[in-house]
Fold this sequence. Notes:
Elements (H helix, E strand, L loop, with lengths): L4 H8 L9 E5 L5 H9 L5 E6 L2 H8 L6 E5 L5 H7 L5 E6 L8 H13 L1 E11 L5 H8 L3 E5 L6 E7 L3
Parallel strand pairs: 1-2, 1-4, 2-3, 4-5
Antiparallel strand pairs: 5-7, 6-7
Bound molecules: S-adenosylmethionine.
Amino acid sequence: xxxxxxLIDRLLRPIDFNSATSIxxxxxxxxxxxxTLLERMSPDCSLTCVEVDEEFVQACASIGDDRLSVHQACxxxxxxxxxxxxxxxxxxxxxxxPLSILDDDLADDILEVAQSCLRPGGKFLQYxxxxxxxxxxxxxxxxxxxxxxxxxxxxxxxxxxVQRG
Length: 165
Ligand SMILES: C[S@@+](CC[C@H](N)C(=O)[O-])C[C@H]1O[C@@H](n2cnc3c(N)ncnc32)[C@H](O)[C@@H]1O
């Protein structure tokens, strides 16, 4: 089931859309977060999306926005996707990859690569239906701001992690 508008609002709340110039989305699914990002982004901001599922990639690419590039790849390939597109360290990474159902090593690799692609002060934003990744994200980023919304099925936690300078 796609994320509710309440969860999307909560997840994207930390983003300063006036200053953001590069945003990444990991795991686009049907594109509900993608569309909201595009609505809020400035004309100069780029959105790079990475998704493993071919049908979702095609549906998302058909949104047809010049600021959007959609890539069929695993989130672990983010660094090479960005460098192929000439995008440097990014301001925000919005992730809905389902960490808790992925193999532990794969999930850790995704978190490692995502962190390496953020600029100092950049933010990694992730939702999860449980708190299983809170301690791992806290260890990586030295602290996590935790949000929660009941107005989603299922209710969800939101992690806001800031890349240290
Ligand atoms: C729970 S859905 C989220 C969809 C949408 N963003 C939303 O919030 O409703 C998770 C998405 O992550 C994608 N995904 C799973 N593993 C992935 C990976 N390793 N790399 C990139 N995308 C992945 C799935 O194909 C799916 O589209």
